[in-house]
Amino acid sequence: MFSMSNKIFHNSKLLRYAIFATVAVIFVLLTILVTRKKPVAEKEDSLPAVILEKPQNGTLVESVTISGYVEANAMIPVVPFVSGTITEYPARAGDFVEKDTLLAKIDDAPFRQQMLQAQAAYFAAKSTFDRLENLYKSGATTQQNYDSAKAQADASKAQYDLAKLQVDYTEVRAPVDGTILIADQAVGGIGNQSQPIAVLADLSNQVVRLKVPEKYFDLFTLERENLSVKVTRPAEKDMYEDAVTTATIENIAPYISPQSKNFVVVCHLDEPGDRFRPGMFVKVQVAYKTYENVPVISLKARKMDGSFYVYDEETSTVKFVEGQDFPLDGTNFIVPEEYRNSYIVMDGQNFVFDGQKVRIFEDALREAKK
After folding, report:
1. φ, ψ (nearest 5 deg) of residue 98
2. In terms of domains, do 221 and 116 share one?
3. Neighbours of 176 (CB within 10 A)
């Protein structure tokens, strides 16, 4: 009797569990049915809008761009050979001067006085020598006296010539044709050999000394004959056009600096004209490979990883093209030949994914205006 009661109680307990589980399952199913949303068709106006553009057939030049400063190939400091007060100073910075043009005049009074003293000493020695020479020829004096008088006359002549040269040195003249870069002396100042009277340079002979990273050493040394150089001086924005000229590689350093890991390349400006001057900042583009008749498009089409999207006109979707080592310059890159006639996403590429349906921006704009 007791066993029968336990069995009935156990069955009753299992039944309650079964009913509870059934109710729970039914509740979950009802919740899913009530809360489940029917698939909503993708609305046209919810699609991302993109701007498209086709590649253009053109030429692309791969290059290395390095910054530098213009220098005069030879800057000549003009120093006086004598010291003294500057009495004339016609030199002006920026003036072009020819060889032997007067740049400064140093007070010559002290040097003229020294010249007169040397002249008097020379004339006296010369007179003595002439007299002894006649006596020597007649046998009236010794060889020793003759030699002594001759030596004295020669020494006096050298002193006299030096004094005259110092007078000439009081006029400081241009040693070569050139443009005066620096002229910072003044009348009344002291001219001496420790400070130049002026600094001259030939502005038709200007160079840029580039400090090129070591990784480009083989490019510059092995491909030197195939390299072309363009030098650009950026102009003030919206005021003038950039100054541009070509250049010729004049020298490539045969070693790498162990401190900077750079090597020096000297580029000679072919036609510097009036817009390049020593000290100016320039950008030097060294072109090493040229692609002609290739499909190119603006770098704006690329994402940060170098990838881009191609638009499929039939499905109105975009296709992801993985970033590769596409040849590029500072403005454009070469599109693979298979996409020569395809539309490339130029704007909106950061908000789409591969295979996504998109709208063309122009179409979306027209719809918005309706």
Report:
1. -90, 165
2. no
3. 14
Q: Which domain holds residue 120?
A: 82-200
Q: How many alpha carbons fall within 13 Å on the CB side of residue 141?
A: 17
Q: How many domains does the chain have?
A: 4
**DSSP 8-state code for residue 113:** H
Same domain for 207 and 196, yes or no, is no
Phi, psi at 99, each rounded to 5°: -55, 140
Both tokens of 212, joined, read 């090129």
Q: Which pTM was predicted?
A: 0.64
Collapse the DSSP code of 27 into the 3-class scheme (helix H, G, I; strand E, B; otherwise coil) and give the result: helix
* Same domain as 259, residue 334: no
| Separation between Cα atoms, residue 292 and residue 40, nearest integer Å | 50
The SS3 assignment for 364 reads: helix
Asked whether the beta carbons of 197 and 191 are under 8 A apart, the reply is yes
Q: What is the CATH number of the domain that holds 145?
A: 2.40.50.100
- pLDDT per residue as tens digits for the range 137-176: 888 889 999 999 999 999 999 999 999 999 999 999 999 9
Can you tell me the distance from the alpha carbon of 171 to that of 183, in angstroms, rounded to the nearest whole number? Answer: 16
Residue type, 135: L
Point out the domain boundary residue: 264, 291, 318.
291
